[in-house]
Amino acid sequence: MAIRTVPAQHATIGAAVTASTTGDIINVSAGTYREHVIIPLAKTLELNFAIGAVIDGRDVGGTMVRSRWIEIFSPNTIVRNATCIYANNNVGGDDRGALYIDPSAAGTQILGGEYAYALGRNMMTGRASNTLVDGVNTHHGGSLNIHFGGIGTGCVVRNSLIHHANEPRPWQPFMGGTATSPAAPYVLYAGGPLVIVSTGWESGGTKGISHSGMIFENNEVYNNIGPGLWSDSVPPNPQTANWIVRRNDVHDNAGSGIFCEVTAGGQIYENYAHHNGGSASQAGSAYYGNGNITVSSSKDVSVHHNVVQGGLIGVNFFAQNRPDRPGISDGTAGQNLWAYENWFISDVNNWIALGWANESDPIFTTGGGWLNQFWWPTADGTSGSRFAFLGEKSTMAALNSTNGGNRNGAGASFYMTTAVKDGILAGTGPGGAVFAAAGPISGTTPRTLIPTGITSAQTFGTATIYISRQTVSPAGIAPPGGTTVTIIASDSYSR
């Protein structure tokens, strides 16, 4: 094993990799490295980045010229504390991650560091199993911050900040649309020249497709346009299975906070999921999608011991008639969907806290809830629909008359007192322990960028654009010229 230093021994990181053999350690000193680093299959290496060591996908003039920061082909590679910024990986249909982990690179560890401002995905595993992402700050990916590609197992994301994915920027070129013919869904922003940027469909904080045994724990996931944490499956690959989501603070995402889609087996617990999916005043009776926690066209999923607050919907289960997903509409999905011993806190009166629904088939033959606790500003039955199971319900008694409130007599759901609610949000009591454990790990005040503050709407072509009063300066590394981004409008991200 040799220890190599950049630039003292080797002028570039790539030169150090070329000179290395399996087991070598490469220490990268502070400086800007304008290169695309490739770790070949034959070399398992450890790359350690000092504070101030930055891989920059731009040339010296500030133009993005590289689509990758690091590509890893060798198993068990370790990348520690890298800062990687700007990549043009959404050009010409190329949307592999700017940090790309090949299927051959099982066991790769990405430890610490910052990954930001790729035009496409910041980070992507191409079916690589047992990838560990631990303690990173990944933000402002053009579509997804982290993407696990199909048919992998055992990938883990923990202790990380995952935020502001798919947030359009005035220095970002058009992605799939033009000023006169935007690709939908899209968001309209200003900050210098007015630009329209396609958000695309694959957008949000993280997404895992057809993976088994993914674990997301102890992360703060916020202000992503799209879902925060997302599992899905794409045929003919197998369904995502055994997804574990625990002790995360997931808030202020424009789509569902935690979105469990076409997944067979999941445990979602001890999360603080709040203010996701839009404004509660928009909810009405539409309890499909965009919940703080949404379980869609899945089976064998338990949602328990979470603190759920505000947003568009609390926790919702629904099934779509999905001809693109064999088995979804024939009664095999929607089985064993449980919600129990959660704490629901409403910010406003018009809020559906918990609901089961289906678009086509009466497939909810098993599933239900028990011993959930709820709080509203007003008394029982005075604020419209609050629950949904075999239709919408406005009272606790109506909910408890169904398996949605008291599954097979396991224990009736009930209202918590204001003192209990206040204790939860102060970090005390059983629910408060969940709140404290899953609370913000960044030490910052929770952001309220996209889902709140909607004041009016206007029409642009065939899409409705909601006007927001929010203003943001991008976190972390500033865009060229220190641009301040002012939101003119945002769409509400819906199917």
Secondary structure layout:
Layout (H helix, E strand, L loop, with lengths): L2 E4 L6 H7 L5 E4 L2 E3 L3 E3 L6 E4 L3 E4 L13 E3 L5 E3 L2 E5 L11 E3 L7 E3 L2 E5 L4 E3 L6 E3 L2 E3 L4 E5 L3 E2 L2 E3 L2 E3 L22 E5 L4 E4 L5 E6 L1 E2 L2 E3 L2 E3 L6 E4 L7 E7 L2 E3 L6 E4 L1 E7 L2 E3 L18 E4 L2 E6 L2 E3 L3 E7 L17 E4 L2 E3 L6 E7 L9 E3 L2 E3 L11 E2 L3 E2 L2 H5 L13 E2 L2 H8 L3 H9 L16 E7 L2 E6 L2 E2 L12 E3 L1 E2 L5
Parallel strand pairs: 1-2, 2-5, 3-6, 4-7, 5-8, 6-9, 7-10, 8-11, 9-12, 10-13, 11-14, 12-15, 13-16, 14-18, 15-19, 16-22, 17-23, 18-24, 19-25, 22-26, 24-27, 25-28, 26-29, 27-30, 28-31, 29-32, 30-33, 31-34, 32-35, 33-36, 34-37, 35-38, 36-39, 37-40, 38-41, 40-43
Antiparallel strand pairs: 20-21, 20-47, 41-42, 44-45, 45-48, 46-47
Helix pairs in contact: 3-4
Task: Give structural notes.
The protein has 495 residues and is mainly beta. Helix 3 (418-425) packs parallel to helix 4.
Describe this protein with a few key phrases.
Pectate Lyase C-like, 495 residues, 13-stranded parallel beta sheet, 48 strands
Concise synopsis of the structure shown:
The chain is mainly beta.
